[in-house]
Amino acid sequence: MINNVNLYSVQPHYFRLDNRKQAESQTYTPVQTSLYKTKGLNVSFGSLIKGQDFIEEECIRMLRKVRENRYRKFAEDDIKEIITELHSAPKPSEKQNILQEVLEVENEDNGSKPDKKMIKQLVHLIAGRPEAERFAILEFAENELKYTTEPLTAFNNIPRKKQDKLVKILNKINNINEPGLFKSDKARIETIDSLYDLFRVPVYAEEDLRHVSQTQADTYKLEQLHLLRDDVKFFQKDKYYSDDKTKSKVTSTAYQIYNYFLENVI
To answer: Fewer beta carbons under 10 A from the terminal one: N or C of the chain?
Structure first.
């Protein structure tokens, strides 16, 4: 049988705050850590960003869900930078699509994803462009992620006017990247990879020439020009094309890269 228990049989004891004992080394400090820190991210109170509209709020939610090694990939400051770049989208309704396109970029060989630096650069590069140019840059980004140590960094540092010219070349490369234009899928992949390698010559030249003397620069330009010319000849002799029309498209694109180097680097 359970006996009734008097919950008030024990009288509480009250102490004055001044009379509490405290060790000499003991201190009291207010809690200043955000709950987000337990999720792998240190976010100070009151710093969570808000979107200007429903679409931006959706973009923010998408970015907060992205994980890397079990933790959030993007801090609130990173998200703010990305959302700011999305303001240049041709239409507000395209912001979410642009972000989704960027987040889907990966190395097709091993499934690895870009780091947040590359993602920021990619959003910066494509946000204000029409769809065809966006996809051309995204395809190049995947190739950069696959073959380079600092993907998109050199291209991102090029002035906008020159970027616009280079994006037109990327668009041509992307239009050639069709299975039916080559004798085999292997031939297509090798040809497109070779065109991207050729494309990187003027892109990397912009960065390389900033760090050499005038004499070294002249030698460098001449060497790269010979390299480009030899590569154009290679594309003219390539037998992987399904027909002469495809050969003409590839050769024309290679010449366009060569001419860009002459006009904008030399």
So the answer is: N
